[in-house]
Amino acid sequence: MLKIGSHVSLKGSEMMLGSVKEALSYNANSFMIYTGAPQNTRRRPIEDLRVEEAHQLMKENNLDLSNVVIHAPYVMNLANGDPEKRQFAVDFLTSEIKRTALIGAKQIVLHPGAHVKQGADIGIAFIIEGLDKVIENTKELDVLIALETMAGKGTECGRNFEEIAEIMNGVKDNSRLSVCFDTCHTHDAGYKIRDDFDSVIEEFDRLVGKEKISVFHINDSKNDISASKDRHENIGFGYIGFDALNKVVNHPDFMDIPKILETPYVTPVDDPKNRIYPPYKEEIEMFRNQKFDPEILDKIRKKDTI
Ligand code: FE
Ligand code: FE
Ligand code: ZN
Fold first, then answer.
1. What is the C-alpha end-to-end distance of the chain, expressed in Å?
2. Based on the number of CB atoms within 10 Å of its own CB, is 19 exposed (0-12), middle (13-18) or buried (19 or more)?
3. Looking at the CA of 38, which ligand is closest?
4. Is 133's pLDDT higher than 80?
5. What pLDDT does residue 114 have?
6. How many other CB atoms are there within 10 angstroms of residue 45's CB atom?
7. Which of 90, 150, 169, 204: disulfide with 156, CB 3.0–4.6 Å?
8. Which has the minimum average pLDDT: 78-87, 189-198, 295-304?
9. pTM
10. Helix/strand/coil (H, E, C) string of 25-85?
């Protein structure tokens, strides 16, 4: 069965219970959460997250914990040139992995890091060193670290399959390393997701191994191939298009792998700053039906005026 969902929020008094409710409201059977704001590292204690109630609600709805994905905050940088900041990233990622295990999830997505000005080689060496420490710190935990394929904006490491392979091969015990394959990022990095996904996967398989993919991020892109931009677009409204993304989502090789949407919220026609409509229910439905509805965003926008 297709495993598909979106990122959902973890907030308010309901915390993880609210995340599960949000996922269910989109008819999702998978979801991704940040354990706090993605742009900072302040975190609520695990006792406040209402994990048990969330698990109960998941059980009642046949939602499996193996389909829950955590995303590490993107401000954390294992490749930072400053040793103190690198140590902070190692410590924080260690605590995020512990939190992931307590939540009951099996994987945490990580942006490998940005080398700033030192060059990719030094950046990648720092990432390997950091991952070695984090893996050692959490060796008793059954949590995968899924390295995300990056768009290559700024000085991001992991912008091609060679760099992902280099990191994975460099880490001493890489049995807990996997890959989060982001369609917008790989397209922006120059891979032909729109025109020839099979050859892209062949190349990935040769360099990294396709069995290493433990989660997909399914996003259309606001930019053409090779733009190195990383701006997500709603499904069917960008440069990748519905048919190509549908091929990824329903690909026979990856049926059991969770697919997570990170597409933008839709804004009402008369109030473009008001991000009130997450389009995930409709986008998930299109992938389940394998049929694009070009009026979908208009329908969502109109809801506001009723
Ligand atoms: Fe990400
Ligand atoms: Fe992503
Ligand atoms: Zn992105």
1. 35
2. buried
3. 1
4. yes
5. 97
6. 7
7. 150
8. 295-304
9. 0.96
10. HCCCCEEEEECCCCCCCCCCCHHHHCHHHHHHHHHHCCCCHHHEEEECCCCCCCCCCCHHH
| Residue 172 in tokens | 């001493």
Residues 182 and 217 sit within 8 Å (Cβ to Cβ): yes
- Ligand closest to CA 153: 3
Ligand nearest the Cα atom of residue 230: 3
DSSP 178-233: EEEEEHHHHHHTT--TTT-HHHHHHHHHHHT-GGGEEEEEE-EESS-TT-----EE
Contacts (Cβ under 8 Å, ≥6 apart) of 193: 183, 186, 187, 200, 240, 244, 245, 248
pLDDT of residue 224: 98
270: CA distance to ligand 1 center in Å?
30
Supply 226's token pair.
């090779």
Ligand 1 centroid, distance to 111 Cα (angstroms):
6
Q: What are the residues whose beta carbon lies below 5 Å from ligand 2 (ion)?
A: 182, 217
Q: Is the pLDDT of residue 128 over 80?
A: yes
Tell me the CA–centroid distance for residue 306 and ligand 2, in Å. 33
Report residue 244 as tokens.
């190509």
Q: What is the pLDDT of residues 31-88, one digit of tens each?
A: 999 988 878 888 888 889 999 999 999 999 999 999 999 999 988 999 999 999 999 9
Distance 230 CA to ligand 2 centre (A): 9
> Six-digit token pair at 29?
């059977």
Burial class (CB in 10 A: 0-12, 13-18, 19+), 140: exposed
Q: Which ligand is nearest to the CA of 71?
A: 1
Report the relative pairing of strands 177-182 and 144-148 from DSSP bridges.
parallel
Indicate which ligand has the atom closest to the C-alpha of 184: 3
DSSP state letter for 293: -
Ligand whose nearest atom lies closest to the CA of 112: 1
Q: How confident is the model at residue 296 (pLDDT cuts 50, 70, 90)?
A: confident
Of the candidates 159, 161, 100, 105, which has an alpha carbon nearest to the alpha carbon of residue 134? 100
